[in-house]
């Protein structure tokens, strides 16, 4: 085009031309897709990288609707989305989203696409400016990151699974160790109880029976020399009875099984004072009943071990034991004012070989569903709180079959467990004292019956070998007095006495035992017995007690305290 002077303008001197060429050069140098569309989406300009990417010329794309150009020909969905973007941009909205464009080799290139409305000086939309940036590397980086995150997540999941499996295995092993510790403790207690019962039911009873016979020989001795020898034999038998009784008590205190937990702890308190000089104050309101056998033994052993710890480590001569219970749990607190220690160091001390006993108590208590809490600090004493269910979980409770087995330890050949209960004959003296003798050991029972029948005013009307039989004979024979052993199968003498006195308040009961524990004699008298005498005591003591009880008043003799040289 010529200017008004008729001269052709020089392109290099036209500023607009230079600017247009510069902008074209800039657009063609960019690594982006850029173009210009009319408001209705007709492509009127594009840069060289856009054409090169799709392998087309300007004539192939310019003047065509932008959605119909080769970049969008791969998908009807992509075309429709672009048409919607053109409508929105023509309305004044900047539209941006990730999509894909077809390139020359037929593949799809991921791009960050943007469509921006362009306005004139008056703010009217005159054109639409499409642009797209290749985000292949960004997508690949994101995918790589996702793959890495997936690998990490998989590893974490695998690690968590393995940790969970190891934790579960560790918990199972810990539960097994607890169960083994509990079973070991129970096995120890069962063996202690078995040995104790062997000593009591067999050895002690045989020694008592022998003493009775030697005592009869002594009384009938024809000369002083024979009486002297018999007296020496009685002394030896008394020593044997005392040794057997002491061993049986140490192995498994009868008071714990026949009297209950509270009386067992009272016995333990006196024992600790006698043997170690430790004064133990026991605070409790009543007997804890009913209490699972396994829990009773476990708590007793725990209290004994804690009191031993006071003796060995606390450096004091006093301790307190309190026992409380509700409908479901029993709680025992053992406290001292001694040296104390930091409970948080218990596990560390156990790892160094110290404090293992406390850990053992805790494991055994937890194994039956209980807890052990320790309060204390160096120089401030220590308090141990043990809480257990009254009834242990069935899987952990001492099986009843084992308890039954404990009551049926092997007996000497020919010894019967039950005794015949002879009916009184018509020739019996109506004015005599009618007596039923209950003892589970045949030789002892035979010796007692023999001594009683030698007395003119005594009439033995029945014999029983267990507590249940004693109750039945009391109901059937209605005797004046029952001589009742404490340790009996099926039903112990304490409970049998309680039942008999409930049905026959006027019927006298005289306890007969080889045990020397004050708690047992107190339990028997609390159940209704008028008194309790020793099996290995003088026969006259038994006769006097029977006559006094049958005369309607108790004998003046007090129950023998433990430690009496004459007590068994």
CATH architecture of the largest domain: 2-Layer Sandwich
Largest sheet: 5 strands, antiparallel
The general outline is rod-shaped
* Overall SS class: alpha/beta
Q: Residue share in helices?
A: 40-55%
How far is it from the N-terminal to the C-terminal residue, by CA? 143 Å
Q: Going across the major beta sheet, what is the strand order?
A: 2-1-5-4-3
> What would the average pLDDT be, to the nearest integer?
80
What are the segments in which pLDDT stays under 50 over at least 5 consecutive residues? 1-11, 393-428, 552-568
Query: What is the CATH H-level superfamily of the largest domain?
Result: Histidine kinase-like ATPase, C-terminal domain
The counted number of beta strands is 15
What is the number of domains? 4
CATH class category label of the largest domain: Alpha Beta
How is the quaternary structure best described? single chain
What percentage of amino acids are in beta strands? 15-25%
Classify the fold: give the CATH topology of the largest domain.
Answer: Heat Shock Protein 90
Please count the helical segments.
Answer: 17
Radius of gyration: 50 Å
